[in-house]
Write a structure and sequence with these properties.
The protein is 30% helix and 20% strand. A hairpin with a 7-residue loop joins strand 9 and strand 10. The radius of gyration is 23 Å and the shape is globular.
């Protein structure tokens, strides 16, 4: 691996390549104007070439070692927030993106020594799909394809017959905590919404659901405390989960790696739902087929880059960011075969008259029904919640679908 370390002092960036001094360059050269930010979506290669020329300046130690690179792995370690915010995943040598031609990872120095990623006889993957019906009193503008992502993951594991125990969790934080009991070297996959706290603007939150499907924003620090020491890999298929901010709680992906999770995959920008699914589908397919985690991430980027339907594949390719607290090679393919899917449950789609198309509206009513049915039974001599809920009204208003 070519390990590049960048340190910032007095607007000068010092580059060290595999523990050898290389060169310096002005930090101001990394800045993005608003015009460049707008152009980044359409043509990230332009900005990528600009930062490539700074990082691999001609006739420097970094440039020489890049030319001599044989294992096609590049690790980048930075020492400041100003350097973390740079979208290094778009580095472009004039011909191609480095993160597609090479496995590219951001290295962090953990506060807690990471657990070694040892090959296990069987793996355990906790899948947390969260798509709240309401955020406070607001109805979301769109729904996520969490069920499609679940089906894609299930299909990958069935195809490979990997020795994985897959568990689909209710999307509550309490359910996640319960499932962490006794877990070691597991994989935790959260798919859902992420964003900034409305009051503490620099604090990132993951939006789980309450029992009635209303959004429950869990601060980054609480999520980090819950999963500490439990996982070898955390996948955050949520917007802004790997984005820079001015506080320790801003970049959840980076914070998890610093806290000793060996590998964390997050999103440094807002990512379209379908692209996130495409990335994770290809990532898991290579990972559980036996490729190391760096190659799995590279192949996933390549798949997004070559997606013709978006027109901005190059931009979308750079949104996922892989953090690692170790530069060692890691394999996640279990030594055993025999995929263990979750227990079979009745599928509502099999019922006569079940909904077959998209479902629109009625979020408030769904939340109210969930609240009524989800209340705990109170002690004797107290008012009980209903054992049934009746939906009534004129014909054709959508009672059956609801």
């Amino acid at each position: 691996m070519l390990e590049l370390s960048l340190t910032l002092a007095a607007d000068q960036v010092q580059v060290i390549a595999n523990a050898k001094d290389s060169h310096t360059f002005p930090a101001s050269g990394l800045s993005l104007t608003q015009e460049q930010m707008d152009a980044l979506v359409i043509n990230p290669a332009s900005y990528g070439a600009k930062i490539f020329d700074l990082l691999f300046k001609k006739d420097t130690e970094a440039a020489r070692q890049l030319l001599q690179l044989t294992d096609r792995r590049i690790g980048l370690r930075v020492d400041s927030a100003e350097l973390t915010v740079v979208p290094w995943e778009y580095l472009h040598d004039g011909h191609s993106y480095l993160a597609v031609e090479n496995a590219f990872v951001r290295l962090v120095t953990p506060r807690i020594p990471p657990q070694p990623v040892d090959q296990m006889d069987r793996g355990r993957l906790l899948f947390v799909p969260s798509d709240p019906l309401m955020f406070g009193d607001k109805i979301p503008e769109y729904s996520l394809g969490v069920e499609k992502e679940w089906e894609d993951l299930d299909n990958v594991l069935r195809d490979l017959d990997a020795g994985i125990d897959l568990l689909k969790l209710p999307p509550t934080f309490d359910a996640l905590q319960n499932s962490l009991a006794g877990l070691q070297n597991g994989i935790i996959h959260f798919t859902g919404h992420g964003g900034r706290d409305e009051k503490k603007k620099e604090q990132f939150v993951l939006f789980f659901e309450r029992k009635n499907a209303v959004a429950h924003g869990v601060p980054a620090s609480q999520f980090l405390s819950a999963v500490r020491g439990r996982a070898s890999l955390v996948v955050l298929s949520a917007c802004m989960s790997g984005a820079f901010g001015r506080s320790d709680d801003s970049n959840l992906a980076c914070a998890l790696a610093e806290d000793g999770i060996p590998f964390v995959l997050g999103m440094q920008l807002t990512v379209p739902d379908g692209i996130a699914r495409q990335f994770t589908d290809k990532f898991y397919r290579f990972l559980f087929a036996g490729d190391d985690i760096f190659e799995a991430a590279r192949q996933a980027r390549l798949a997004v880059l070559n997606e013709p339907s978006t027109g901005i594949g190059a931009f979308l390719m750079g949104i996922p960011v892989l953090y690692a607290s170790t530069n060692g090679t890691a394999y996640f393919k279990p030594s055993s075969k025999g995929y263990q899917p979750p227990e079979t449950r009745v599928r509502l789609a099999a019922l006569t008259g079940a909904q077959t198309g998209a479902f629109f509206g009625r979020q408030r009513e769904m939340v109210e029904v969930g609240k009524l049915l989800g209340e705990e039974r109170r002690p004797q001599n107290h008012t009980h919640p209903p054992l049934t809920v009746t939906l009534h009204g004129p014909g054709g208003i959508g009672k059956t679908a609801l």
